[in-house]
Design brief:
Elements lengths: L1 E10 L2 E11 L4 E5 L6 H8 L7 E6 L2 E2 L4 H7 E4 L11 H11 L4 H14 L15 H13 L5 E5 L7 H14 L4 E6 L2 H7 L2 E6 L2 E6 L1 H8 L3 E8 L2 H9 L4 E6 L14 E8 L5 H10 L3 E8 L3 H13 L7
Parallel strand pairs: 3-8, 3-9, 6-7, 7-8
Antiparallel strand pairs: 1-2, 1-4, 4-5, 9-10, 11-13, 11-14, 12-13
Amino acid sequence: MIEVENVTKRFGPILAVDRISFYVPRGEVVGFLGPNGAGKSTTMRILACFFPPTSGRASVGGYDVVSQALEVKRIVGYFPERVSVYPDMPVRTFLDFVAEAKDVPRAVRKQEIGRVIESCGLDAVEGRLIGHLSKGYRQRVGIAQALIGTPRVLILDEPTIGLDPEQVVEIRKLIRTLGADRTVILSTHILSEVSSVCDRVIIIHRGRILASESLATLQAQLQRTRRVRVEAEGPETQLRQVLAQLPGVIQVRRDGPSPVAGEAMQNGTVAAVVEYEGEDIRKAISQAVLQRGWGLLEVRSLEPTLEDMYLQLIHDAEAGHTIEP
């Protein structure tokens, strides 16, 4: 549905996007993840036909974003980073204006506006002035205008930026619902946004794509070592020494604050993280602890978080070891 091939975008001497390529199939919700200034919004604007790439090719629904821009705009709903609404217009009046601008036939316009109002949960505020709405509701109005015309593709650029936690949850639920029957590409710099909403993540850094994978695949590619959290009752120094001597163990570190000077634990509760390579080490840890008569409270595998994976990708990219997307 969305194809980007070796796209570069320059603004004078500034290289905003550098030879990026990715593909988004029909019906997938993809998170476009990266820090501010990484090239996310530039890519979104190219796909929405705001401006052309300097070089390379991009298409949406089989239509080229340069030579067939009008056809692209007919099938794309775009929510820009700074959504433009008319604060002095009531919600329904504004959506009617957008529907007319999108050339929605007058005979079905009322029905279409009612559909997006219901989809975006705007029923209770459809008669109110947009300028009097909370930011969360204004974001919903922005998404509603993108949905006018039943687009097959939704391009959402930072849809939850500036919202409070409750509003963020509401907008994420809405995006998950919208992704049930259309292709969605969601630009964000918020890690939790991707893990809670998206099927796949595309990570961009300094204008280059570092990875384009499902979270599970990305985890498998990046998980060079494994980690286990151990909580036990016993002398801390001896416990950590025993764990460090187990086969495959790379390091053992305290999980939590260090004890006060002169009050190191002798037989208290100790929490540690064991980093290791090779086969699952949990059984060996349990045996080592119990054989010495110490109390075993927990042995739990720690899966890498999206934040862990993201930071590792950035580190690898800067060290010259980028994963090929």
